[in-house]
Amino acid sequence: MREHGAWEAWLDFFLAGVADTANQAFDAATRIVELFKEDRENVTANSDRAGSALRVHDLFQQNPFLSANQLVQRTGLSAPTVNAVLADLERLGVVEEITGKKRGRVFGYRRYLAILSEGTAPLPAVG
């Protein structure tokens, strides 16, 4: 019954992979929760407009890429307030502007994105 032994070995290998993946996901989730907590504390302690900054931070937790215009629409804050909050969050190392443009700027939640992308590599270009 060689087939029986091969099946058991494959099942062991498969279940070990499932367990590793689950452990990695749990570790990533734990680190994300800790990151959100650290950043909230940083914003609360070091932003002159902490209330508005925390509203913006909450939205970045739901979507790690947002534009200033999206933030104005979703928070109800004025454009000058959103821009001031984004400047604060950049200064505190929470977000970074990723387009390099003056208009239509998009911001990314840097360390959150880093955790999400761990263990993933872009597919090689074809052609």
Structural notes for this entry:
A hairpin with an 8-residue loop joins strand 2 (95-97) and strand 3. A three-stranded antiparallel sheet has the order 1-3-2. It has 127 residues and is mainly alpha-helical. The N and C termini lie far apart (46 Å). It has a domain at 33-117: Arc Repressor Mutant, subunit A, CATH 1.10.10.10. The protein has helices at 2-46, 50-62, 68-75, 79-91, 110-117; strands spanning 65-67, 95-97, 106-109. The chain has five helices and three strands, in the order H-H-E-H-H-E-E-H.
Describe what is shown at a glance.
By secondary structure, the chain is mainly α.
Overall mean pLDDT stands at 89
In DSSP terms, counting alpha (H) and pi (I) runs of 4 or more, how many helices? 5
Helicity, in percent? Answer: 55-70%
What is the CATH class designation of the domain at 33-117?
Answer: Mainly Alpha
Strand residue content: 5-15%
- Might you state the CATH topology name of the domain at 33-117? Arc Repressor Mutant, subunit A
The main sheet comes to: 3 strands, antiparallel
Radius of gyration: 21 Å
In CATH, the architecture of the domain at 33-117 is: Orthogonal Bundle
Shape: elongated
The secondary-structure class comes to: mainly alpha
Task: Set down the secondary structure blueprint.
Blueprint: H1 2-46, H2 50-62, E1 65-67, H3 68-75, H4 79-91, E2 95-97, E3 106-109, H5 110-117
Antiparallel strand pairs: 1-3, 2-3
Helix pairs in contact: 1-2, 1-5, 2-4, 3-4
